[in-house]
Design brief:
Strand content: 35-45%
Number of domains: 2
Structural class: alpha+beta
CATH class of the largest domain: Alpha Beta
Low-confidence stretches: none
CATH topology of the largest domain: Alpha-Beta Plaits
Number of strands: 11
Mean pLDDT: 84
Largest sheet: 5 strands, antiparallel
Helix content: 10-25%
Number of helices: 3
Order of helices and strands: EHEEEEHEHEEEEE
CATH architecture of the largest domain: 2-Layer Sandwich
């Protein structure tokens, strides 16, 4: 199988989240989970001052653009290119150009692959993030996204939560 790379897709301004949602639906409907791995609208936290009140808000880093981690082939190109709101891939002519690792690092998206020796059913402790200190059994492992899914007790119900490999420790 070919290697997945990050590509930049140009969208109508203001349609970034809608494009992300539409591509996510297309991935699910066409069973392309192993070819289109991740769709991101890069956000950054900024402090705004309105009427003398400081407010922390998330803003799009690149309005009009969406990042996609995918294996480039005719099927994936067609799905992304024909999504409503997409005007095309960034690159010369009709040939999409993948982002380099250096470009991805400046965006804060690391290319580190963490190797783990966990299996479905193993018990783990969450070491970082919102769920720090939570203990749960692994329901699924996604090597591409570098995440595991565990059940967390929320409001008296078991709720599946996706946790990064970097934030878990085997018990």
């Amino acid at each position: 199988m070919a290697e997945a790379n990050w590509y930049v897709v140009h969208t109508y301004s203001g349609y970034e989240n809608k494009v992300k949602t539409n591509i996510d639906k297309a991935i699910e409907n066409r069973h392309l989970e192993d070819q289109i791995l991740e769709v991101r609208v890069p956000m950054q936290d900024v402090v705004e001052l309105k009427n003398g009140v400081r407010k922390q808000v998330s803003k799009k880093m690149f309005p009009g653009y969406v990042l996609i981690n995918m294996v480039m082939n005719d099927d994936t190109w067609y799905v992304v290119r024909n999504t409503r709101g997409v005007t095309g891939f960034v690159g010369p002519g009709s040939k999409p150009v993948p982002l380099t690792d250096a470009e991805m690092a400046t965006l804060g998206i690391a290319h580190d692959n963490i190797e783990i020796d966990l299996e479905i059913g193993d018990t783990v402790t969450v070491t970082g993030g919102v769920w720090a200190g939570t203990v749960g059994a692994i329901l699924s492992i996604n090597e591409h996204k570098q995440t595991v899914t565990i059940n967390v007790d929320m409001f008296g119900r078991e709720t599946p939560v996706e946790i990064s490999f970097a934030e878990i420790k085997k018990m």
